[in-house]
Amino acid sequence: MKKKLSIKDIAEQLNVSKTTVSFVLNGKASENGVSQAMQRKVLSYIEKVGYRPNKMAQGLRTGKSKTIGMMVEDISDTFFSTIARKFEEILTTKGYKIIYGSTENNTDVTKELIRVFRNHQVDGYIIAPPPGIEEDIKALIEDGVPVIIFDRPLTELDVDSVLVDNYRGAYKATQHLLANGYKNIVMVTLLSEQTQMRERERGYRQCVEEAGGKPAILKIRYHEKKEKAIADIEQYLKNNRKTDAVFFATNYLAENGLEAIANCKLAIADRIGVVVFDDSNWFRLFKPSITAISQPIEAICTEVTNLLMERLEQKKEIAPKAIVLPTNMIIRNSSVPVKKAGRT
């Protein structure tokens, strides 16, 4: 079997020191006085021979793996996959790789992911946390490992976080429907204790009650089968024929809900208004296009990365920061004013 090249082998072949090769491989050549010509020489040679450094050993030597662990509820979800891709782009420019895991909003799954990521010696964590994971995250922080929380808070833990104003976003969505003449608005949300879901419900309730109305809420179980979720929404609409608008708390609930609306033969905009919390690329292509509350993905990723880099590079103790970003409403054709839709 062909012997795997080492830094020592490369140094001997190029007649340079192991330290010089190490500086080039670790991206520290310029700051340590290695000439551009020498850097090109080393890089050209390692590309020619196909050298790949042992990341585990490299991490043990430097104390850094240059890897970030990211955990979200479901990496296949449009919101989280878009976020993950953006993080990957930003962190790559800073010399870091990212590895992902889906928690399924399950505490035990998250604990196991943390164990696996620790074994991989990740330098920091970006987490959309499920309930009950506080002690594990606290242990990471106490060990000096940077942890940044996003999407939902851990109110009992002093930790860096980047969140969006879910309450205000839901309030604005409901206010928009009311202002456009919709009177009987149902909110379709998750049967969940997640803070962001509770805040969206609170925003909806507050707005409806301030307008003198009575909140109507349909809750779908988390991980409910698609067919059952569609049937539940369809049944609600058939039993509550005065409903003239639906506010979906997530874009994946909207996917099921729009199918239920079609099954009930209710024309969106003409017969029923629709607004969704969380935008999706296909909402603008849908006929009619779907009004949505958009989360500021670019800003979320930038703020999380800034906090993470600050923690990774900190020279002194820094107090945890809590950043809350506003949402943006993208008004499309699914929530046109009632009179414009030909209804009074």
From TrEMBL:
PROSITE patterns: HTH_CROC1, HTH_LACI_2. SMART domains: HTH_LACI. Gene3D superfamilies: 3.40.50.2300, lambda repressor-like DNA-binding domains. This is Substrate-binding domain-containing protein. It comes from the Bacteria. GO terms for molecular function: DNA-binding transcription factor activity; transcription cis-regulatory region binding. It holds the Pfam family Peripla_BP_3. The keyword Metal-binding does not apply. It comes from Chitinophaga tropicalis. Residues 2-30 form the HTH cro/C1-type domain. Residues 5-62 form the HTH lacI-type domain. Keywords: DNA-binding, Transcription, Transcription regulation.
